[in-house]
Fold this sequence. Notes:
It is built from eleven helices and three strands, in the order ααααααααααβββα. By secondary structure, the protein is mainly alpha-helical. A hairpin with a 2-residue loop joins strand 2 (192-199) and strand 3 (202-209).
Amino acid sequence: MKDDYLKELENNIAVNFENKHLLITALTHSSYANQKKDVKYNERLEFLGDSVLQIVISEYLFLNYENKTEGELSKKRALIVCENSLFKVAKKWDLGKYILMSTGEEMTGGRTRVSILSDCVEAIIAAIYLDKGIEFVKEFILKNFMKIINMAMKSQIILDYKTKLQEILQKNGETSIQYDLLKFEGPPHRRKFFISVTFDGEVHGTGSGYSKKEAEQDAAQTALIKMGNIYE
């Protein structure tokens, strides 16, 4: 990986690594390593990063929400560290740009795949922990996840936007919700879909994704933001 790419990412996440190899490993997907000889990839770091993230978030919730039960804290923590939350952090860092992956993985949408990006966030957390120690990584996690933590504690994190939209609209009676395919772009192996969501005779949101399901969720999320029921 080029030094300027590494420096760019370090600037994005506001961390200057002493051991650059830790960061490179964190950014290396197994598909890339499988094409090379003796190249480490990020799955072991992902394992460690998941544990570091869990303990930091657990401690923060335990110390700051004394009125919450164990069950309530567990549910909130699950929302904070879930794949979708990690994906939001990855997008904030523009992480997909920097991941080392095979051409085949990239051609099939790897740079925007939720699972790959969320796993890479955990690997970077582990790399920071190993390079800087627990106190540094704790501050790093809380800085980057504070908005997500606050949203979780206010019950503003939604995993299924289509269901949420339907629940809100049907509170005052039945409402017909329609999702329409507007267009699609790209080759069959990398097709991007564009969907609109219509209710009350009006288009209230549009969305896109690399599957119709993903595009529909994106359209529903846009509609919910427009209605003021959730925040970006």
